[in-house]
């Protein structure tokens, strides 16, 4: 089991334009945007700000995205270690494959591969 990199975080926001202004003021570079979300960058690290409640847990809070080389192998290794992911590997709206695993405190870890 090996994680390639910590790639980014998804934060739920109430007002997208206000959030964009805040993060740009801090020096984040503006990336791809649609009606419900925007991705901002510092170097290679990305932060997606979203008002799309389908991508935000009911209790709110961030999701940490962790890149792996092979999503199916990593999923199998997680299962072999006795852990229980919340989802099976599936395609997200951007086309990458991912699965969700909650840590013992309910924090969201999203493992993905492109």
Automatic annotation (TrEMBL):
Boundaries of every VOC domain copy: 5-114
Alphabetical list of PROSITE patterns matching this protein: VOC (PS51819)
The organism's place on the tree of life at top rank: Bacteria
Protein name in UniProt: VOC domain-containing protein
Organism, scientific name: Virgisporangium ochraceum
């Amino acid at each position: 089991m090996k994680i390639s990199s910590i790639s980014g975080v998804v934060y739920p926001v109430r007002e997208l334009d206000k959030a964009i202004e805040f993060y740009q003021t801090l020096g984040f570079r503006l990336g791809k945007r649609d009606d419900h979300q925007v991705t901002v960058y510092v170097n290679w690290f990305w932060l997606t700000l979203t008002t799309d409640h389908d991508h935000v847990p009911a209790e709110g809070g961030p999701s940490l995205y962790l890149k792996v080389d092979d999503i199916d192998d990593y999923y199998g290794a997680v299962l072999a270690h006795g852990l229980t992911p919340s989802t099976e590997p599936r395609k997200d709206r951007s086309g990458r494959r991912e699965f969700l695993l909650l840590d013992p405190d309910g924090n969201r870890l999203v493992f993905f591969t492109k």
